[in-house]
């Protein structure tokens, strides 16, 4: 039976709770104790709340209270520290509140501006998209790939950001695709759905009122990873489309090399193999990038998410390809929220990328 968690816009049991991950089993344990987090205490703790080698905090209200450091499993991280570095709930106590707010804003947009066109781009039941149209056509189009640890969230929850694009003369298309847990944990299968969605839009751009020469993509969190995978796709060989069919990509708070991800708790639901790790690590396929690239992150995100953004940027820069790195004083879900604000971190970055 299909889980209703993904479809109803809710989130997994630990999302937004104070929790820890059992290193040996990957089991997620929630803590009943509530935590009071003030702006002063958050700023005093620096970029996050994890007692990790990166932050070197002697004690934490959030993160790993009472943690005794174990053997290193990746760089200087022990297992518990690495697990926490790939779990945003250790760094954003109000994560669920932001998600609730964005869901409400997405509903409000549909109430005020009308429902998007619901279109099918493939044969799988989840291969659909929401298209929010701007008034004037042909128009540039921004294709959004949602996050949610490759399992949760959906196109409907992403609608809040559409209004900014519509008001600036661009279409906004939010992709749906199957949760990776319904694909046997195969990230390559999920990435193939995202690629099909982008290719379908490119081939049907004229009938959608979109300018085929102004197709842009963006994704947040696990969607930021899938966005980078799309940007490193060989569009000529796989789809018979121009190499530069995508003119620009906005990778928001994503992951770009999956080696540490594979060693973290996320391997409990991702069926990693050496081949999948290599194929789904965009940082290892930079030679295929043909679009201008913008990479963003929040300074209150986990140290690993920040490092991933910086390392990916440096790797792209080393090849001479156009890339910009932009950081903001935001938590993880707040970086997503900023996409709907023309003055926000990602809203401004998207408008600059599209030159609108």
UniProtKB/TrEMBL annotation:
SUPFAM superfamilies: alpha/beta-Hydrolases
Keywords, ordered alphabetically: Hydrolase
Pfam families: BD-FAE
Ranges in coiled-coil conformation: none
A molecular function (GO) term: hydrolase activity
InterPro entries reported for this sequence: AB_hydrolase_fold (IPR029058), BD-FAE-like_dom (IPR049492), GDXG_lipolytic_enzyme (IPR050300)
Domain BD-FAE-like: 129-234
Protein name: Alpha/beta hydrolase fold domain-containing protein
Organism whose genome encodes this protein: Paracoccus aestuariivivens
């Amino acid at each position: 039976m299909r889980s209703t968690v993904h479809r109803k816009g809710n989130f997994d049991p630990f999302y937004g709770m104070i929790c820890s991950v059992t290193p040996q089993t990957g089991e997620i344990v929630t803590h009943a104790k509530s935590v009071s987090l003030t702006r002063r205490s958050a700023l005093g703790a620096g970029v996050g709340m994890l007692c990790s080698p990166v932050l070197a905090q002697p004690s934490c209200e959030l993160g790993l209270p009472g943690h005794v450091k174990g053997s290193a499993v990746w760089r200087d991280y022990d297992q518990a520290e690495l697990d926490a570095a790939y779990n945003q709930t250790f760094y954003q106590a109000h994560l669920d509140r932001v998600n609730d707010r964005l869901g409400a804003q997405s509903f409000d947009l549909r109430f005020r501006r009308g429902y998007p066109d619901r279109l099918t781009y493939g044969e799988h039941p989840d291969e659909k998209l929401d298209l929010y149209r701007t008034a004037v056509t042909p128009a540039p189009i921004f294709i959004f790939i949602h996050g949610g640890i490759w399992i949760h969230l959906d196109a409907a929850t992403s609608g809040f950001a559409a209004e900014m694009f519509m008001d600036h003369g661009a279409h906004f298309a939010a992709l749906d695709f199957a949760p990776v847990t319904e694909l046997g944990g195969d990230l390559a299968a999920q990435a193939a759905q995202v690629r099909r969605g982008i290719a379908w839009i490119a081939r049907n751009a004229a009938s959608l009122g979109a300018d085929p020469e102004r197709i842009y993509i963006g994704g947040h969190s696990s969607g930021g990873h899938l966005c980078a995978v799309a940007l490193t796709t060989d569009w000529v060989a796989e789809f018979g489309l121009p190499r530069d069919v995508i003119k620009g990509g906005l990778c928001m708070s994503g992951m770009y090399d999956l080696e540490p991800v594979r060693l973290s708790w996320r391997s409990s639901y991702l069926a990693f193999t050496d081949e999948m790790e290599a194929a789904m690590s965009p940082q290892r396929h930079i030679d295929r990038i043909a679009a201008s690239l913008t990479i963003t992150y929040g300074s209150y995100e986990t140290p690993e998410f920040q490092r991933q953004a910086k390392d990916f940027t440096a790797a792209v820069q080393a090849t001479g390809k156009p890339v910009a790195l932009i950081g903001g004083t935001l938590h993880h879900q707040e970086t997503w929220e900023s996409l709907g604000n023309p003055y926000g971190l990602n809203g401004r970055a998207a408008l600059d990328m599209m030159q609108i």
